[in-house]
Amino acid sequence: MESKVKTPKQAVKKAVKAQNMGDLITQYGIEVKKYPLGVLVEGTVVSANPNRILVDVGAKAEGIVKKEEMKDTENTYKTLKVGDSILVMVVKEENKSGFIELSLKKAETERRWRDFNKMYSNKIPFEVTALQYNKGGLICDAMGMQGFVPISHLDRVHFAEVSSAATGSEKDIAERMDPLIGKSLKVVIIELDREQNRIVLSEKQVDSEKNKERKKERLDEINVGDTIKGLVSGVVPFGLFVDLDGLEGLVHVSEIAWEKVENPLDYYNVGDEIKAQVLDIDTNKGKVGLSVKRLKTNPWESVAEKYPENTKIKGTVTRIVPFGAFVQLEPGLEGLVHVSEMNGDLKEGQKVEALVTLVDPAEQRLGLSIRQLEEPQVYR
User: Fold this and answer.
1) Using one digit for the tens of pLDDT, what is the confidence trace for 41-87?
2) Under CATH, which architecture does the 123-202 domain have?
3) What dotted CATH number matches 10-122?
4) In the chain, where are the structural domains located?
5) Are 355 and 367 in contact (CB under 8 A)?
6) N or C: fewer beta carbons within 10 Å in the chain?
């Protein structure tokens, strides 16, 4: 009987059947990776369904992510498709079926730090949720990890909401921060230290790179002395922050009005439109100093004509000092009743009549006397 001649293909098939995978690997010198328990591995998704994910990790056997090891805080498994790269942790070197058991869930922390490094290096903005106030700022949920936004790195609007209590107690500041708890903030990472588990975030630096060109354009458009319009973006004890369409302006509290301003909130609120004069421009920082009061007449310029000596005036006591009392004749214009020119005790808010005894516009001094008005015979 004539024996059949085996083709080369048939011979190879027989050889493969006669040898196991280990023999073939040894025979052909194929380099196969081995991964110890707990190591992080990058692989490629071979198949994915709600119950398991198969991953090619370059080993003798494929890796498998079982259902209980698939779910991380962002449910990454739901978006995976064949061919995607994936970072997993080895939780069992080989199971009964010959698979390397892997975990998406346990590799999450490493993935987070890799993501943070990328966002930190490229200044990529992302959203966090404010969880609670801690001394000096907000503790936030940053993609399942804890981040910190210092008060000084809140944006202008949020900073304005809390800064008026910045000189108060921790309780005062915490109460001011309370409306931000639970809110989403867009931030960038400004400090990253894995060893210290430290992630410092900034809300105010978001889009700072994008705004550089616009700031430069705006700086070229304005000059000292110009009158410009803007929107109040923040109200703080020391003045008003003003959004000038790409630039940040500041109206110092002393430039809000000619009279003494105790609280800027008595004059403006966030969102108010404002007209001001440009006092100075800092091209390096892209900031502009503004004045509202310079667009109004300085009452001291006409004081000599309106209130010459021996003029009888009516006013309101605004301050009591050891050497007398200050009386407001009109907004921005106060005179002093020296203690020697008073006729009895005065109190703040009291309406009084007095006689003008001194007018000095250059030094912005206005002398008043109640005694000379009430006891004129003494001064004849």
Assistant:
1) 889 999 988 889 999 988 888 899 998 888 776 777 788 889 998 88
2) Beta Barrel (2.40)
3) 2.40.50.140
4) 10-122, 123-202, 208-295, 299-379
5) no
6) N
